[in-house]
Design a protein that fits this description.
heterodimer, A: mainly beta, 6-stranded mixed sheet, 4-stranded antiparallel sheet, 0% helix, 51% strand, globular, B: mainly beta, 7-stranded mixed sheet, 11 strands
């Protein structure tokens, strides 16, 4: 069985500040990891994914995440927050992107203060 | 290329009525998934089709939910009769079957269901 824990259901940062959203996973097999973002009243959009290639993954909108096996973590970061980053962010894991469903974390709502 | 499309985008129905949600996956994607997010809760897996076959339906909450994927193309998810606790967002996702390159799983915009 796999699971994802996202620490902090709400995170608030100032515009221009570092964004750090935490994700820890549990998996008995090598995982595939994803970050999705949901803007208000919109669907889920893929930010980035880890598929066992480079451990530092760069995504859209200036986001990146680093896979750390020893810490079972896949934290999402962005050096400088923008007002448009305000959204809900979901970390997800699967053991097989071709044949298995995703298991999601509970989500982190990011608020960006002016 | 068209993404995953879902219909309707929003639906408000009364308790006891029936609602049918439709999902059109990306062309060529054999995997089709349904997920649900009840207000304030996690996004939960409902079921997984590979082509027209149900690969995993362990997440279906009860027998009021029926999913079909005729011909391995679009899928429908019917809720009959709807209950208040069925309110939430129903997401559909699709991906290719090949695992060689770490597939991306694409999501639709969701169908927002409100049962009153």
């Amino acid at each position: 069985a796999q699971s994802v824990t996202q620490l902090g259901s709400h995170v608030s940062v100032s515009e221009g500040a570092l964004v750090l959203l935490r994700c820890n996973y549990s998996s008995s097999v090598p995982p595939y990891l994803f970050w999705y973002v949901q803007y208000p009243n919109q669907g889920l959009q893929l930010l980035l994914k880890y598929t066992s290639a480079a451990t530092l993954v760069k995504g859209i909108n200036g986001f990146e995440a680093e896979f750390k096996k020893s810490e079972t973590s896949f934290h999402l970061t962005k050096p400088s927050a923008h007002m448009s980053d305000a959204a809900e962010y979901f970390c997800a894991v699967t053991s097989d992107t071709g044949r298995r469903a995703l298991t999601f974390g509970s989500g982190t709502r990011l608020q960006v203060q002016p | 290329e068209a993404g995953v499309t879902q219909f309707p985008s929003h639906s408000v129905i009364e308790k006891g009525q029936t609602v049918t949600l439709r999902c059109d996956p990306i062309s060529g994607h054999d995997n089709l998934y349904w997920y649900r997010r009840v207000m304030g809760k996690e996004i939960k897996f409902l079921l997984h089709f590979v082509k027209e076959s149900k690969q995993d339906e362990s997440g279906m909450p009860n027998n009021r939910f029926l999913a079909e994927r005729t011909g391995g193309t679009y899928s429908t998810l019917k809720v009959q009769p709807a209950e208040l606790e069925d309110s939430g967002v129903y997401f559909c996702a699709s991906s290719q079957l090949d695992t060689s390159s770490g597939n991306t799983i694409y999501f639709g915009e969701g169908s927002w269901l409100t049962v009153v």
